[in-house]
Design goal:
Helix content: 40-55%
Strand order of the largest sheet: 6-5-4-9-8-7
GO biological process, one term: glycerol metabolic process
CATH superfamily of the largest domain: GAF domain
Radius of gyration: 22 Å
Order of helices and strands: HEHHEEHHEEEHHHEEEHEE
Region (Disordered): 1-24
Oligomer: single chain
Number of domains: 2
Structural class: alpha+beta
CATH class of the largest domain: Alpha Beta
Pfam family, one: HTH_IclR
Distance between the termini: 57 Å
Domain HTH iclR-type: 23-84
Number of helices: 9
Shape: elongated
Strand content: 15-25%
Biased composition (Polar residues): 1-11
Largest sheet: 6 strands, antiparallel
CATH architecture of the largest domain: 2-Layer Sandwich
Length: 283
């Protein structure tokens, strides 16, 4: 497509996104950014091969991204890497970026200490999305959950996030998402789930036993910001044959401590519980 590397408009004055070709160009440009994020520095030929376009098309797409300061040429001639323009977009979600940065050493330390997989999750629409993961070298090989959307009702992190929402937000999410059964152990009764969430909010700890996947158990605690509002959830997960009730009881204090340490890094100071302005609990 001859017009796919043009910037904001083509010769007719229409924006590229107004045509199927424009949409395809946007998709290819985003794919290039994802490749550079994954690989660090990549040459034009490798980009073209992975995106599935001619080398000249890849070059034009890279040139367009370079014009907008999203990519730059590296010191090694012919290779490209992400540029600072990406940070302009990232600045739109500073709180989440700060949480990930502040949590990283604690998440990695907990993974090493427990020998299991540790995830940090936040709410996205009516799902939980994992924004950070660390896994001990001793942990059984597990899926990379970063960026994955998971049902809130079937995960320990999701239960934490649901438990501290306002009633209105929780009801809206459950109305949209429903309670689909993912395994024979998934909670599919709204009344049963709400009863469990009330207990989760009370104790600040949630578990999920083979509710998302057979053979996978998890436990989670809330992450609070400087105002005391729950902005995320820290979870530990592992195979059910090892990550059982007794193991969770033994690890609960460590998981809670790690969650509190992340919250403290975000400015949270523990104090007497109070009602949040949106109906959620702040402490």
């Amino acid at each position: 497509m001859g017009n796919e590397a043009q910037n904001s408009t083509d010769q007719t004055g229409k924006r590229g996104g107004d045509s199927p070709g424009g949409v395809q160009s946007v998709d290819r440009a985003i794919t290039i950014l994802e490749i550079l994020a994954r690989e660090g520095e990549v040459g034009v030929s490798d980009v073209a091969k992975e995106v599935g376009v001619h080398k000249s098309t890849a070059f034009r797409l890279l040139a367009a991204l370079e014009d907008r300061d999203f990519v730059e040429q590296s010191a090694e001639r012919g290779k490209y890497r992400l540029a600072f323009g990406v940070l302009r977009l990232a600045s739109a979600i500073p709180a989440r970026i700060d949480m990930v940065r502040q949590a990283q050493p604690i998440v990695e330390g907990l993974a090493s200490e427990l020998g299991e997989t540790i995830n940090l999750a936040v709410v996205r629409e009516h799902y939980a999305v994992n924004v950070q993961q660390a896994r001990s070298s001793a942990a059984v090989a597990s899926q990379n959950w970063v960026g994955q959307l998971t049902p809130l009702h079937a995960t320990s992190s999701g239960k934490i996030l649901l438990a501290y929402m306002s009633d209105e937000q929780r009801d809206s999410i459950l109305d949209k998402a429903g309670l689909p059964p993912l395994t024979p152990h998934t909670v599919t009764s709204r009344k049963a789930l709400l009863n469990e969430l009330a207990e989760v909010e009370k104790v600040g700890f949630a578990t999920a036993f083979e509710e998302l996947e057979a053979g996978l158990n998890a436990a989670a605690v809330p992450i609070r910001d400087h105002t005391g509002y729950v902005v995320g959830a820290l979870s530990a997960s592992g195979p059910a044959f090892r990550f059982d009730t007794d193991w969770i009881k033994g690890a609960e204090a460590d998981i809670r401590l790690a969650g509190n340490r992340i919250s403290h890094r975000l400015g949270w100071l523990e104090r007497a519980p109070r009602a949040g302005g949106d109906g959620s609990t702040a402490t």
